[in-house]
Amino acid sequence: MPSNLSQSRDTRQTIHLPTEREPSSIPRGDVDGNWEYPSPQQMYNAMLRKGYDDTPEDAVESMVAVHNFLNEGAWAEIIDWERRFSRGLAYGWQACKGGEEGFQENADRIANLREIAAPKLLRFQGRPNEMTPKARVLEFMGRMYPTKFGCEAPFDRHDWYVQRRTVNGETKEVRYVIDYYAGPPEPTGEPVFFLDVRPAVDGPTAAVERMMRWGGDVWHRASGAKAREMASS
Hints:
- The chain is of the alpha+beta class and 233 residues long.
- It contains nine helices and six strands.
- It has helices spanning 40-49, 60-85, 89-96, 99-105, 107-110, 133-144, 146-149, 204-222, 225-232; strands at 23-27, 34-36, 120-126, 156-165, 171-183, 192-199.
- The chain starts with 22 loop residues before the first strand and ends with a helix.
- Helix 1 crosses helix 2 (60-85) and helix 3 packs parallel to helix 8 (204-222).
């Protein structure tokens, strides 16, 4: 999404790559408008700059499409977190105590972002060589118990810095960490990806938010609340 990547054709390049940039659905926090994704030419130049000289030129447009798809998915996950917690922890617990299914079923009633300004992305940072603590734990558990926790380490990591607008009209910067995982391909050969998106534990509030969301879902399912809801309906 950086705007300062070169659009010039590289001297080693053998085919034409488009220079048009696709707008994202992610609002910027520094200026008006949304972030724009890199063009295929910019993506190719960025890969060369990072030392990936063997990047197939005819695959770059597909790479850009996957890149954009994953970023849109990451932003959707961040919106889900913000819908729960931009109003504060008390409201967050009300949103989380019904579990993930309960939140989705009552999303319009529980957290309507029309009453609070939507979050915006201030900046982002790629950190592919720095595994998050959670990713390290999962990798260790995968080595110890491969049948239950077996998964490859994430192939990428991003930190996204999001501007949260609170109910008081104040703004707060929240850092989100995103681990990108590759899963087994579909039978048709299409690649499969998984994203693990959550607030970084930069303070007690973020830690409580993560515990609320995980604990609310676990408690909702373990306590039999879903079965009681179905029986009463």
